[in-house]
């Protein structure tokens, strides 16, 4: 991965999107060079349908479910919308966590508005884990549909889905999980985990962008209510010609990820830990966000004391990472996720998410450590010229930081 004329880009933004896996690239390219609508009955159409079926089986193997429990979609956004719209019942509230992706929060609001019901938000602890007692309280008051993410996109913090399912089912609620950040990175077993619905997006683990899945447990769910109307594709639950090249890429990425899931997770975790330790040792004011163990192996969410994320990222253009803020209504807003965990606005604005993945190398991490430490020292020197400290946050000057949004 590289750019012309500048340092090679060190890609540490796998939670935004992962590079396409070679296996997925080969499968997608082959499908793009073939012709055939998976609904056509002639040989070309049958070949396309066979390729789609094989992809469905591969994703089912990764999730440990049955292929006919899977509906292909354009990604997790669509899958989340389809799940919530289909499972919500009039008069039932929707219970979600405070750290869900907008593809759940916004869908929940839309579904609740249409049904004249309410969205109930369950908080998280300082380490990003769910306040399970709040979930129990929410379910005790009214019947509900529960949607709790499997792993957070900003911090990587994992939900205890076994417990969430147990609590929800005991209260008679269906449970959906947005597992976009978990699938393909850690094992998941849907035969054991009694989730009713699950969403995923292929591009987070090496499939092309624009293809995803909604899993619907057989037998437990009322009918799926399609978001759009059209032909009988995906048994009428998702009308529209199937994205065969994307779907076969998703199947190939699922198979490649499943082949070495545990080894890959261990390797990525050790690179991530090395990165965090080196950065936090060199820059003593730096804090790590999220539960130290209950999180994805590839995510490092770091708050650089007094060093705004946008200044840091500008000072290390060779690193592709994300800041803990999002553009809302034309202004940069600090991350809802970090605020929900109890970080201040300033802390949230000084937070960067580094996310590693299957193609991250030890060399990437060694260079990233150097770039981050160097950027922190330069940003610190620019913002706090009257101090002698070279590391972030240990001794600020008289004048305080120049706020990037001032
Ligand atoms: N949920 C989570 C947790 C995500 O991280 C993302 C992607 N950022 C989505 C949903 C939406 O996925 P897509 O854009 O592929 O539909």
From TrEMBL:
<dbReference type="InterPro" id="IPR015422">
    <property type="entry name" value="PyrdxlP-dep_Trfase_small"/>
</dbReference>
<dbReference type="InterPro" id="IPR020578">
    <property type="entry name" value="Aminotrans_V_PyrdxlP_BS"/>
</dbReference>
<keyword id="KW-0411">Iron-sulfur</keyword>
<dbReference type="GO" id="GO:0051536">
    <property type="term" value="F:iron-sulfur cluster binding"/>
</dbReference>
<feature type="domain" description="Aminotransferase class V">
    <location>
        <begin position="10"/>
        <end position="366"/>
    </location>
</feature>
<feature type="compositionally biased region" description="Polar residues">
    <location>
        <begin position="386"/>
        <end position="395"/>
    </location>
</feature>
<dbReference type="InterPro" id="IPR015424">
    <property type="entry name" value="PyrdxlP-dep_Trfase"/>
</dbReference>
<dbReference type="InterPro" id="IPR000192">
    <property type="entry name" value="Aminotrans_V_dom"/>
</dbReference>
<comment type="similarity">
    <text>Belongs to the class-V pyridoxal-phosphate-dependent aminotransferase family. NifS/IscS subfamily.</text>
</comment>
<dbReference type="InterPro" id="IPR016454">
    <property type="entry name" value="Cysteine_dSase"/>
</dbReference>
<dbReference type="GO" id="GO:0031071">
    <property type="term" value="F:cysteine desulfurase activity"/>
</dbReference>
<dbReference type="InterPro" id="IPR015421">
    <property type="entry name" value="PyrdxlP-dep_Trfase_major"/>
</dbReference>
<feature type="region of interest" description="Disordered">
    <location>
        <begin position="386"/>
        <end position="406"/>
    </location>
</feature>
<keyword id="KW-0808">Transferase</keyword>
<protein>
    <recommendedName>
        <fullName>cysteine desulfurase</fullName>
        <ecNumber>2.8.1.7</ecNumber>
    </recommendedName>
</protein>
<keyword id="KW-0408">Iron</keyword>
<keyword id="KW-0479">Metal-binding</keyword>
<dbReference type="GO" id="GO:0046872">
    <property type="term" value="F:metal ion binding"/>
</dbReference>
<keyword id="KW-0663">Pyridoxal phosphate</keyword>
<dbReference type="Pfam" id="PF00266">
    <property type="entry name" value="Aminotran_5"/>
</dbReference>
């Amino acid at each position: 991965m590289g750019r012309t004329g500048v340092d090679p880009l060190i890609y540490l933004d796998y939670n935004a999107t992962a590079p396409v896996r070679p296996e997925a690239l080969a499968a997608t390219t082959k499908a793009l060079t073939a012709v055939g609508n998976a609904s056509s009955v002639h040989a070309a159409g049958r070949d396309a349908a066979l390729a789609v079926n094989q992809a469905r089986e591969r994703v089912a193997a990764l999730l440990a479910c049955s292929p006919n429990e899977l509906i292909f979609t354009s990604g997790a956004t669509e899958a989340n919308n389809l799940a919530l719209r289909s499972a919500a019942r009039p008069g039932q509230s929707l219970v979600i966590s405070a750290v869900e992706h907008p593809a759940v929060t916004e869908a929940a609001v839309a579904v609740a508005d249409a049904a004249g019901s309410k969205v109930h938000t369950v908080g998280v602890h300082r380490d990003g884990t769910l306040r399970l007692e709040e979930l129990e309280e929410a379910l005790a008051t009214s019947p509900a549909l529960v949607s709790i993410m499997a792993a957070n996109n900003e911090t990587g913090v994992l939900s205890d889905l076994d417990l969430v399912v147990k609590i929800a089912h005991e209260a008679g609620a269906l449970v959906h999980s947005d597992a976009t950040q978990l699938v393909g990175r850690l094992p998941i077993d849907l035969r054991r985990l009694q989730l009713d619905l699950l969403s995923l997006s292929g591009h987070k683990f090496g499939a092309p962008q624009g293809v995803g899945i909604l899993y619907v447990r057989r037998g437990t769910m009322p009918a799926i209510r399609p978001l759009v109307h059209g032909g009988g594709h995906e048994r009428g639950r998702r009308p529209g010609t199937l994205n065969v090249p994307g779907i076969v890429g998703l199947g190939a990425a699922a198979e490649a990820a499943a082949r070495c899931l545990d080894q890959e997770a261990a390797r990525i975790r050790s690179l991530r830990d090395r990165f965090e330790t080196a950065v936090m040792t060199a820059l003593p004011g730096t804090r790590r966000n999220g539960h130290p163990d209950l999180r994805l192996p590839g995510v490092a969410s770091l708050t650089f004391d007094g060093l705004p994320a946008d200044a840091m990222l500008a000072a290390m253009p060779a690193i592709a990472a994300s800041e803990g803020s999002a553009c809302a209504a034309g202004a940069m807003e600090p991350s809802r996720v970090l605020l929900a965990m109890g970080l201040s606005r300033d802390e949230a604005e000084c937070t960067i998410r580094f996310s590693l993945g299957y193609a991250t190398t030890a060399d990437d991490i060694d260079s990233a450590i150097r770039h981050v430490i160097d950027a922190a020292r330069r940003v610190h020197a620019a913002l706090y010229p009257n101090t002698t400290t070279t590391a972030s946050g240990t001794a600020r000057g008289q004048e305080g930081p120049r706020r990037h949004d001032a």
